[in-house]
Amino acid sequence: MKIQFDTLDYQTDAVNSAVRVFEGQTIKESNFTITNDVPQGTLFASDGIGVGNRVILNEEQMLKNVNKTQILNGIVPSDNLFGNNKAFPQFNIEMETGTGKTFVYLKTILELNKQYGFLKFVIVVPSIAIKEGVLKSFEITKDYFKNQYNGVVYDLFMFDSSKLDRVRSFASANTIDIMVTTIQSFNKDTNVMNRENDQLSGARPIDLIAETRPIVIIDEPQSVDNTDLAKDALKSLDPSAGFRYSATHRDNTYPKIYQLGAVDAYDNQLVKQIEVAGIEMDEDGNRAHLKLIDVKTGKNGISAKIEVYKKTRNDADKITMNFKAGDDMFSKTKLQAYDEVGFIQDIDATPGFESVTFSGNPEKITLESATLEDEAIKRAQISKTIEEHLNKELKFKQSGQRIKVLSLFFLDKVENYRVYDEEGNPSLGRYARIFEEEYERLIHLSKYKELNDVNVPVSEVHDGYFSADNKGKLKNTKGDTQADESTYEMIMKNKEGLLTFYDEEKHHTAKANKIRFIFSHSALKEGWDNPNVFQIATLIETKDTINKRQKIGRGLRIAVNEDGERVPGFAVNTLTVMANESYKDFAEGLQKEYEEDGVIFGVFNKDSFATIITHYDEVTEEMEILGKEKSEQLFNYLKQEEFINSSGRATDKLKQAITDQEIEVPEEFIDVVPQILVAAKSKVKSLDIKDAKDKVEVKVVKEALADDFLELWNKIKYKTTYKIHFDSNKLIEFAAKGNESFDGVDSIQTRKGTYLYKKGMVEMSQAGVKADESSKSSVRATTSGAYKLPDIITFLQNETSLTRKTIVAILQSVNNLDSFKNNPLSYMNQAAKIINAIKNQLIVDGIEYTRTNDKYEQMLFSTETLNAYLGEKGNSVKVDESKQKTVYDYVVTDSSIEKDFARKAEMDDNVKFYIKLPDWFKIRTPLGPYNPDWALLYEEDDEQHLYFIVETKGDTSFEQLRPHERAKILAGEKHFKAVDTDIKFKRVSDEAEIRG
Q1: Quick one: what percent of the chain has pLDDT higher than 90?
Q2: 850 sits in which H/E element
């Protein structure tokens, strides 16, 4: 099995954001002499010349590029190019865990080489785990990237202090070379990288690397350059520039050029949705429950956090309270059950021996003392995790989806999984034994008898990821030792095997093919994941050191099927977290962790509206924005009118305005009211975490699969084929000269790089010394010599997928090639955008659908397994089954707009039947599959039946959609015209608009 890769828009946007930073720069290869004293047998260029990157930086132009990129991505423009480390420009790229940041920065490296010829790159990571993850990503993407980038030669290696010849070849290579290193390898003077070395004729490895002026990729910068020593270490690489990739940037002094935060990733279904399940025992305070959570030493002495029951007005709640020596347990809890516990005699804070001693019974509790209640809860957690796992396997089996399901258990002690006798013979630890007992009980239930692995012995369906000693015995580690390195290698090596079903006919009989349940040490908490982890349970007895983001990070990635293809959509992608706490506590704790990492939800500030675009040219990407000054005016107005409270959060008044899609603003902002409401709506969103208790299985309303359903279904069930009438002469003409929708390549204007002369007045006041720019003008001075012109034909071929002959014909038809000479890169990028826009328009204009005899399978409505979530944060609308107006007892939706539409369709007497079209109802288009939103049977005047396909796009007008998405919808309209069953196509934001 080989993991397949798709071109995903958000990843392309992240790559382009980095590439755009250098737009218009003069880029050259830089050669330098390494040494004339080359030891025999080294991997060295014969002339002793090293090859490096060279960027002649125009800081002002680079900042303009950065600002343009920020505005395109809805980020407030930065005033400065440099952050805290002023040695070289660095840029923050924010990508939520599980969205493929390693893939993105590897692709960025290749794109930077393609556009500018950069050759030398250094990836700096914070840990062994992440280093191994980078190596695995390099291995599994290499074939894909070679195909995408015309067989480009590139290599990646791990810095190894015992193989310094590899540093030599890095310095001298004239192909793309990428070095991966941990920050710990060069942040101290004693590191081999920082010491003179005889293998390098007395040179320091760091100096050879620095001579190449590498572009540095910093993976998880909050853990890499969080000290002055680390910042100095990065500076010693003498980078041309740096790109910083993380889900949570702590240092926001660096310009952020791209952001895909947690809320956006969930909203766009780019990661799995999260549901939380928990096992809670509530005995209403009838038993003296005691669980030691933590012991701390502070200014006021030693204190202990203990989970207890405490009396409330009506009963008793289980809570965590702070206690100190001398506290009487009955007095603190107000419950009779604690009378026999007595008072706290002593609290021991010695690391590893934390405990609390009582005067009564029990005599003592420790962090590690597992009570009978703990044992029962752990068994229930294991059992429910297995049950969730088997149910998911059953769901995929019934829907014909070949997706292997994996579950992950985190343990803090090896002995809970594997124990050894005096001779070193292994046997099951406590939780492994419980697992096997519960698995054997569940797998033999009749409903699971058709599952793929029902006959695989229980001992072969689970395995542990733990580090081992030299005799092969598993041992406890901290996650960053040499022993752990081999464990990470094993995890990465088994990745494809774990995703492959056990199948004797296909000879898929390896150990990894049988494994579906993984036990891992809690120390191995970062740097690896698996897309098909659907359940995560934490069986930890001591203090839980894995934060919630690390837990979910192991399973957030979108699942893949047996062919290695991504299977998007929440219908498949739900990650169930078996928590040690309530759903509410987990959700609040996760949000708190995000906020501690600098991700603040729902807070407005004076710059919140600065990036509202007031004018945008789709082809040249020239734009005007509201700006910081106007944004501050609007923010102050909204506070004054109590749309925003003193804490910067939305009031009910603003939430109502968003719902009504109306808001009163000063006259100067009236033209941007829709954009203001969109910006406000994005701010009031928070993490959408589901409660597993609210999950219900959606059932077919069989009585509804009758006359009205069949009448509507018979209108939409037909499939089509398409052919494209593509007029190459029109493409050449429109691309060169333009048409009614787009300007042509002939309209492109560029200017030569100029020097800006600025002067300003220096003023001294009590506030300090301030310099204000008073005038600015360009100077008639140019760089010596013309730009070296790149191969524009090959560039446009790659960007547009058109033939060389067509590209040449377009360029021969234009009269502005002087603009190409002025600024080659700007001209080529604009030309590519224009040609692609016109090509896509002609494809859609020229598409012709023909109805076939093939039909969508009606029976899929009955066989598909759907889940709905109820409650305030649910994704469904309960229907009135007696009306028999739709297929299921719940309508499962993708957005609040769709929920509102379903509610109104349910209430609208003119709507006789409606269907939320399922994921399998896909229409083929030349731009990818298109899945329409709704089908409706509508009645007017009690007799005339109208049939609609409805597309709901909320606040976004059709013109504001991406051209690619717009084109797919237009192609979908043509499909339904070809079906020729009087079906009408409508784009609406509200159900009431159907009548219009």
Answers
A1: 34
A2: strand 847-855
Average pLDDT, the chain: 83
Residues 6+ apart with CB under 8 A from 590: 548, 549, 552, 687, 689
pLDDT in the model for residue 961 = 63
| pLDDT given for residue 521 in this prediction | 72
DSSP-assigned states of every residue in 389-445: HHHHHHHHHHTT-----EEEEEES-GGGTEEE-TT--EEE-HHHHHHHHHHHHHHTS
Helices (H), 26-97: 59-72
The confidence score (pLDDT) of residue 774 equals 40
For residue 20, give the nearest of 234, 241, 174 by alpha carbon.
Answer: 241
d(CA 947, CA 352) in angstroms, rounded, equals: 70
So what's the pLDDT on residue 769? 35
Q: For residues 733 and 839, what is the distance between their CA atoms, to the nearest angstrom?
A: 11
Q: What angle do CA 99, 594, 98 make, to 5 degrees?
A: 15
727 three-class SS: coil
Token representation of residue 136: 């695995």
* Residue 710 CB coordination number (10 Å): 13
Q: Which of 14-18, 111-115, 575-579, 924-928 has the lowest mean pLDDT?
A: 924-928
Instruction: Say if CB 348 and CB 354 are below 8 A apart.
Output: yes
| Gap between the Cα atoms of 868 and 886, Å rounded | 15
| Local confidence band at 530 (pLDDT 50, 70, 90 cut-offs) | confident
Whether the pLDDT of residue 778 is over 60: the answer is no
Spatial distance between the Cα atoms of 982 and 948, rounded to a whole number of angstroms: 9
Q: What is the DSSP letter of 875?
A: S
Could you tell me the two tokens for 331?
């007095």
Sheet containing strand 364-366, edge to edge, reads 344-348, 355-358, 364-366
Q: Is the peptide bond before 932 cis (omega within 30 degrees of 0)?
A: no
CB atoms within 10 A of CB 835: 26
- Convert 172-237 into a string of H (helix), E (strand) and C (coil): HCCCEEEEEEEHHHCCCCCCHHHCCCHHHCCCCHHHHHHHCCCEEEEECHHHHCCCHHHHHHHHCC
pTM score: 0.76
Secondary structure (DSSP) of 327-374: -BHHHHH--GGGGGG-BEEEEE--TT--EEEESSSS-EEETT---HHH
Dist CA 603 CA 648 (whole Å): 5
Long-range contacts of 369-376 (CB under 8 A, 24+ apart): 369/292, 370/541, 371/290, 371/291, 373/281, 373/289, 374/291, 374/541, 376/281
What's CA 70's distance to the chain center, in Å? 19
Residue 787 CB partners (closer than 8 Å, separation 6+): 26, 821, 823, 824
The yes-or-no verdict on residue 267 having pLDDT over 90 is: no
**For the ranges 349-363, 406-420, 772-786, the one whose mean pLDDT is highest:** 349-363
| Amino acid 102: pLDDT | 94
Confidence grade of residue 3 (pLDDT, cut at 50, 70, 90): confident
Cβ pair 601, 263 in contact under 8 A: yes
Take residue 813 and report the two structure tokens written for it.
């038809």
Q: What is the average per-residue pLDDT within 899-903?
A: 90
Average pLDDT over residues 844-857: 90
Q: What is the DSSP letter of 606?
A: T
Instruction: Identify whether the C-beta of residue 932 lies closer than 8 Å to the C-beta of residue 951.
Output: yes
Quick check: helix, strand or coil at residue 937?
Answer: strand
Q: Considering only CA atoms, give the Rg of the chain.
A: 31
CA neighbor of 110 nearest in space, from 29, 177, 166: 177
- Is a pLDDT exceeding 80 seen at residue 918? yes
Q: Which of 247-251, 297-301, 756-760 has the lowest mean pLDDT?
A: 756-760
Average pLDDT over residues 352-363: 91
CA dihedral 223, 225, 226, 229 (to 10 degrees): 130
